[in-house]
Amino acid sequence: MSIREALADIKALIAEENFHGAYRELGKIASPDHEFPIQQRMARLMRAIPPEALGLRSMRIALLAGCTLDHFAEVLGFWAALKGLALDIWMAPFDTIEQTILDHESGLYAFKPDVTWIFSTHRDVLISVPPGADAQMVGKVVDAAVDGTANLWRAIRKGCDCQILHNTADVPVIDVFGNFEVNVGWSIRSLLRSYNLGLAARRPSGVMLFDLDHVAALYGKRRWVDQRYWYHSKHAFAFGATGLVAQQSAAVLSAMAGLARKCLVADLDNTLWGGVIGDDGIEGIRLGSGADGEAFCGIQAYLKALKERGVILSVSSKNDESNAKAPFLCHPDMRLSLDDISVFRANWNNKADNIREIAELLNIGLDSLVFLDDNPVERELVRTYLPMVAVPELPEDPVDYVAALVKEAYFETTSFGDEDRQRATYYRDNARRQDFASSFTNTTDYLKSLEMVADVGNLDPLRLPRVAQLIGKSNQFHLTGTRYSEAQLHAKVDETVVYGRWFGLRDRFGDNGLISAVILERRADAVLHIDTWVMSCRVLSRGMEEFIRNEIVGLARELGCTSVTGLYVPSRKNTLVAGLYARLGFSPAGEEAGTTHWRLELDTGAPGLSTTIRRRTATKDGLVATS
Amino acid sequence: MANEQNIRERLNRIFQETFDDDSISIHDNMTAEDIDEWDSVSHISLVLAVENEFNIRLSAAAVGKLSNVGEMVRLLTEMSDGQ
């Protein structure tokens, strides 16, 4: 089917109000490589679908640029929708980056963006020194340029509470000294590269760089700039690159909104090794030697690297379990071990069911999953039954699998920390807990036997990054949907009006890490209000909700408050906690536009809820057991 | 003039697709005045769609000059004759 026919079919689906069908089909045919007219027509079809029908997360984004972005903005909206975002885009007048930012009366601040994107290019970076300039002069000029950019970031943050996205300079291909430029610090090429590195070094929390220079290289630097459209209408990159820039940046925006994928579910036969383990046996599968045997090692090595950066790995394979596990246990060329896999499902059930089970076991949404399978029939089955799961098309040749996966930009992130390093362990321990749980007939006995200890502490600089990450990424257990950067949290939580508490949980199977945080606001009328409450779903239903509720009540009493209030702001993903406050003894206190208000009066008692969790307080010197 | 007829048909479809209006029927004197959505931004979209459809590359100078349908047809006919 030609693209024209496919677009006509999608138009018909929209006319029939089959919006989900249209969205799915658009996702299937979308490619960053399509020429601009196709990108534009797809964007138009997407705009014809009411965003509320798709339940996309809304994001207000302000675009500031020294180039023309009207055409790009249209296509960006399309790719953002595919990544789960309904963008509301405001564009500053052409070429007014500084003026718009420095004038706090400008439309930027009236718009109240969630994200301000400074879409600069190398043309906006005023940096040059005479040929042959010494290192000291080069350093001074680069620092001055980086300072100038950092000042803009500060000015934005002064005027509004938003995240900032800033482009790296796309190092141009037109040069004067040719290859010699890389050999000296004073050349344009070296200056721009130093400037880009300087931005990364000076980037405060809440500011992300968008690597335009890398995207230019992905597209091909020779064709990156179409001089016709620079001279004619100030378009800074070729129209053919529009889809790629939009796809790559939409992935970053989606990560900034906490919507990036979290888990990769891989098939085994002909995906992680060549051949069929059940038929070919350990000696017969292709892994390690021969061209495609090496390619399968390459795939495994890549998945292992993903796991080490915090992506959860799972397996879904049609196999007998013992056969499926054999290579992991005794093939010398396996790069992945069973310890790398959080949930291992090898059976003869259909894969959609297996994947649904994996999501349930891990307590993550289906829209956090990516499914990797060489078999087009399995891919199509999963796409049909679980449209929220991302299923990349894989090429015929396994040597190209990794590139195909990378191309989709599923696993963008805005941070990396200890939590990410240990995530795989957390989830693997959880799977062991589940096995253990099945040996009990009564939940309380099971919870008691876990020997849980919770750590509680104030929001200190050490925990700030993880708390910001947890607030940024939590979707299911997030009562109000707030998003705060580290800087915002640091400014907000003063421990006189606004209080921040974090919670950690460990048990006989291991440490779950920092798994919950609350931001509480003490209000004038003796009310302690729960502004934000997030919790990792991996510790759900272990009594942590009750424990935290008791902590909040304890703090409220300490502060002389007579009641605690909270909100539930419904989103597409947080129905899990719709009934939380009711379960914790709060009374309904009104409703507006779907948001429910809850109140707990302390003078009428509000006794502590029972849990099996012991409490420890975090102090500067370490953890002290208090009960 | 079969070639010119063919060019007109394809160009008509490009207009319909670019301006998302199946009722558009192009004629030589048609300009941006005749189509509400035809502004400087969509003019570029139109030119890009034409370039794609006919697999040609217009010069920066030509991009600005193509202000009516007649000129487009003339240019496309010339370029395809030259091929």
Task: Give me some keywords for this one.
heterodimer, A: 627 residues, alpha/beta, Rossmann fold, Aminopeptidase, five-stranded parallel β-sheet, globular, disordered C terminus, B: 83 residues, mainly alpha, Non-ribosomal Peptide Synthetase Peptidyl Carrier Protein, Chain A, hydrolase activity, acting on ester bonds (chain A), FkbH_domain (chain A), Methoxymalonyl-ACP biosynthesis protein FkbH (chain A)
Task: Label the overall shape of chain B.
Answer: globular
Classified by CATH, the class of the largest domain in chain A is Alpha Beta
Distance between the termini of chain B: 16 Å
Main-sheet strand order of chain A equals 15-16-14-13-12-11-10-17-18
Largest interface: A-B, 16 and 15 residues
Count the E strands of chain B.
0
Structural class of chain A: alpha/beta
Shape of chain A: globular
The CATH homologous superfamily of chain B is named: ACP-like
Order of helices and strands of chain B: HHHH
Share in β-strands of chain B? under 5%
Helix percent of chain A reads 40-55%
Assembly level: heterodimer
The name of the CATH architecture of chain B is: Orthogonal Bundle
